[in-house]
Amino acid sequence: QVQLVESGGGLVQAGGSLRLSCAASGRSFSINAMGWYRQAPGKQRELVAAITSGGSTNYADSVKGRFTISRDNAKKTVYLQMNSLKPEDTAVYYCNEFSHYYSDYFEGTPSDYWGQGTQVTVSS
């Protein structure tokens, strides 16, 4: 299965930006939909963005207009550009692949594999 390593998190002030990267290994990356999730302390893991193999994207309402998911299949990497960050965006961010994804409904079945994630902290 695909191995995933997240990076790019850090500490930023409200209104700032970060770009997260998810480096993948394995041959399935180019054909599977990918998603970014986040989990804040005491809260459920939440799907915030998804992208299909063809480049169609979907977002949670809380991040629409601020976050952009993209992928580079040649580099086997998926990105999450986060702008206009808010303190409520503070969480550990994870990427994962979908074996099945339904873009019309923003629903899918993710892999059982989870990487270590990358911490995003938004201050002020």
Summarize the SSE layout with pairings.
Blueprint (H helix, E strand, L loop, with lengths): L2 E5 L2 E4 L4 E8 L7 E7 L6 E6 L5 E3 L7 E6 L4 E6 L8 E12 L4 E4 L7 E6 L1
Parallel strand pairs: 2-11
Antiparallel strand pairs: 1-3, 3-8, 4-5, 4-9, 5-6, 7-8, 9-10, 9-11
Characterize this entry briefly.
With 124 residues, this protein is an all-beta fold. Helices cover 0% and strands 54% of the residues.
Can you give a write-up of this model?
The structure is a single chain. This protein is mostly beta strands and 124 residues long. The strands form two sheets. Strands 2, 4, 5, 6, 9, 10 and 11 form a seven-stranded mixed β-sheet that branches. A hairpin with a 4-residue loop joins strand 7 (67-72) and strand 8. The radius of gyration is 13 Å and the shape is globular. The protein has strands at 3-7, 10-13, 18-25, 33-39, 46-51, 57-59, 67-72, 77-82, 91-102, 107-110, 118-123. The N and C termini lie far apart (40 Å).
> CA-to-CA gap between the ends?
40 Å
Q: Major beta sheet, specifics?
A: 7 strands, mixed
The portion of residues assigned to helices is under 10%
State mean pLDDT (0 to 100 scale). 94
For the structure shown, list the relevant keywords.
124 residues, mainly beta, 7-stranded mixed beta sheet, 4-stranded antiparallel beta sheet, globular
